[in-house]
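Lab notebook, bench 4. The sequencing result for the construct came back, and we need a structural model before the next group meeting so we can plan mutations. Quick request posted to the team channel:

Model the 3D structure of this chain.
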Amino acid sequence: MLSVKNLKVAYGQIVALKDVSFEVPAGKIVTLIGANGAGKTTTLRAVSGLEKPVAGSITFKGQEVGGMDAHKLVSLGIAHVPEGRKIFPTLTVRENLELAGWTIKDKAEVRRRMDEVFTFFPRVAERVGQLGGTLSGGEQQMLAVGRAIVTGGDLLLLDEPSMGLAPVLVDEIFDKIVAINKQGTTVLLVEQNAAEALEIADFAYVLETGYTTIAGPADQVSCDAKVREAYLGV
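Done. Here's the predicted structure in token form:
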């Protein structure tokens, strides 16, 4: 579904991604792990059109999309849940979700997708009239994922969904990611919590200072000595 080859992204003179390559097969969960500054977030931003590549290719469903504007990629079927959630704090939960359906002309379909969000995240349904900024961190993360569900698409990009959450909420968020995947959505996951990410992923790639250094099935990557020492603490 998604193929990234020899991706290079720079911020002025600073080269954030030097040579990143990976594949995301349809229907799978693929995770990118690595230390802070390795280039994980930049990679997702390049895939979703928020950063323009200097070199390399990004192919989605057989179409070259590298450098394409972000709003066009949403229409093609790529939904991005950014690091830090980025919900609208002064809008209600319902308004946040309704805005996520801006590309959908059939309002009945928007309502159907919102009902799907409420099924996945009952706590979001309970707080539908509250302002986004009054929600807890975990509830805001659920709302952020819920917005992506309303937007729709075949590929869901998740950037650090467990950041700042209590352990019990981390488990819940990862359970929901698996459930969303089982319903047919392909997932590209960036996650600092490598142990949790490798547990739910089908394939994994390790990024180090802008390069892809280790790749393979997640269960094999989790057994790699370097990965165990650097990211799993064993």
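The domain at 1-77+183-234 is CATH 3.40.50.300 (Rossmann fold).
Will bring this to the meeting.
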